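Collaboration report, partner site 2.

Our partner group contributed sequences for two proteins of shared interest, and the home lab folded both. The records are reproduced in the order in which they were received, starting with the first partner submission.
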Amino acid sequence: MKAIATQNAPAAIGPYSQAIKAGDTVYVSGQLGIDPSTGNFAEGGTEAQARQSLTNISNILKEAGLSMKNVVKVTVLLADINDFAAVNEIYKDFFEAPFPARSAFAVAALPKGGKIEIEAIAVSD
């Protein structure tokens, strides 16, 4: 296993890695919509946080030598399931067909009061 870390995504807020590479697979930890340059949530609600979360994932994958095209599975955690459609609109800006497999869940709460957290699994070509 090899830890993947970049300053272009928020530092882990607990005892975990931004991502772990195991063989040809990269497991990206859940990313909140935090802007790494400020340490604060992206302003603009769930959509802005979703965009930042996916940008963070993209930056972590770039550090691993991969891109969003390598993503095979995504898990989306939402503080409010009513944001599902709005998140889909942002999501389409980061992925293209064939889209990765995906799960989405409403949760009672997210760390630091976030509105969305997204994790991803990517496989090198």
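Second partner submission, folded after the first:
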Amino acid sequence: MIITAEAYHVPVLLEESISGLAIQPGGTYVDVTFGGGGHSREILQRLGAGGHLYSFDQDADAEKNIMDDDRFTFVRSNFRYVKQWMRYYGVERVDGLLADLGVSSHHLDDATRGFSFRFEDAALDMRMNKRAGKTAADVVNNYSEQQLADILYLYGELKQARKIAGSIVKARSENPILTASDLMKAAFSTAQLSPAMKKDMARLFQALRIEVNHEMEALKEMLDGAISVLGEGGRLVVITYHSLEDRIVKNVMKAGNAEGRVSQDFFGRTEAPLKALSGKVITPSAEELKRNPRSRSAKLRTAVKC
């Protein structure tokens, strides 16, 4: 049995996330963010002949990394449909589910995907699934000023969201905004960004990427699906990279819902489908940060199905 893959992403918090899954050799596991296959390969190495791994990815580029292994099934889909796909495959109980919510190095380093403003002439695409959906250019050029301001504030947490949205709308009335350079000039009236502007530009790109890929909605659906498919004692391991998604994951692990609404029984005891295994968030070690600087904002949370 040979496991090969074209690794295009250094897996973050690899040992910590695999440890959190507490893998049983004969168990059934799901990696809903396959990407370069780093986490999936580690899971397979710990599975016996009776174990099985289902890995999800909607990006066609990720398919180049599929492993040839009878214990492995690749699901070409958005992870929001994890519950439906497990039902399709006849899986009644999952022993662990892993989600690494970060954008891969491959996406950030591929100028044609438009995920990074480092490539000034790159088209504003940002779709995780290149086969469907609107692009970031569609959002920038067609959303109303109010809609733009809302997503920049909610998803980018930009304090100057209204001002930036107004600048974008004014600029696009003269010429379409099609590239990263166009967007820089439209948002900040310059192509030479100061350090503070670069941080805001990163937040602007984050907001557009989240909107284009419906990331918050997909995350909530995936977590609901995870609760449904996990068997009693099953582990949920999630790696987040910004406060919006981390807040949702924390709330789901605490209360069973994205809003964090705590439900109590007749005796006042908290009712929740999951139990967080540690109140302390796991972050990358100094060694990992040195090896992989992009992991600096990563946070790992683990919960068990009650």
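Feedback sent to the partner group on the second submission included the following. Residues 1-7 have pLDDT under 50 and may be disordered. Strands lie at 28-31, 52-56, 72-75, 94-100, 230-240, 263-264, 270-271, 274-276, 299-305.
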